[in-house]
Amino acid sequence: MFEINEAQLSDIDRVVEMRMEMLYEVGKIAQKGGTEKLRARTRDFFIKKFQTGEFKVLMAVADGKIVATSGIQFLERPPIYENIDGIEAHIMNVYTLPEHRGEGIASALLNNIITQARDKKAGRILLHAIGKDQSIYEKLGFKSTQNEMELDLS
Questions:
Q1: Are 86 and 80 spatial neighbours (Cβ–Cβ below 8 Å)?
Q2: DSSP states of 113-133
Q3: What's the whole-model pTM score?
Q4: Fewer beta carbons within 10 Å, N or C terminal of the chain?
């Protein structure tokens, strides 16, 4: 059994560790655990954004251990007819430890995030599915789109 909690500043190091595990698993970093620089910058980001409320991390906890996480960031854009309040939610860092997959944990995290987005009057929720399993998102009503472009400035 698991419970879902919002991560607090005291959870930062474990949240960073979960993000590094996710990035390594999907091939975004070559070194397990990431570099010290990446870990430090990620930690600084979470501390700053947790304090301002701009970014939240929900975590599933089983037997006192974080076994899954998901982040949500709310963005405000100029209103349009399809999104009259101009609020969008962006989901990122959905990750469940391999030994806890298939237990409904990610679905529970995502349902919680969808509820939060509705409560904030978000007109839409965006995410970038990384990895092979997009079916979890499709089961919750997410649809793939082809209208995004990217310019890499790094």
A1: yes
A2: HHHHHHHTT-SEEEE---SS-
A3: 0.89
A4: C
Domains of the chain, CATH where assigned: 3-139 (3.40.630.30)
Comparing CA positions, the residue from 126, 124, 148 lying closest to residue 137 is 126
The tokens of 81 are what? 């007819």
Report the distance separating Cα 131 and Cα 128, nearest Å.
10
Distance in angstroms (rounded) separating the CA atoms of residues 73 and 92: 8
The token pair at 2 is 């698991």
Q: How far, in Å, CA of 102 to CA of 64, rounded?
A: 19
Which residue stretches of the chain have pLDDT < 70? Answer: 131-132, 152, 154
Render pLDDT for 43-70 as a digit per residue (tens, 0 to 9).
999 999 999 988 999 999 999 999 999 9
Sheet holding 55-62, edge to edge: 3-6, 55-62, 65-76, 87-96, 124-127
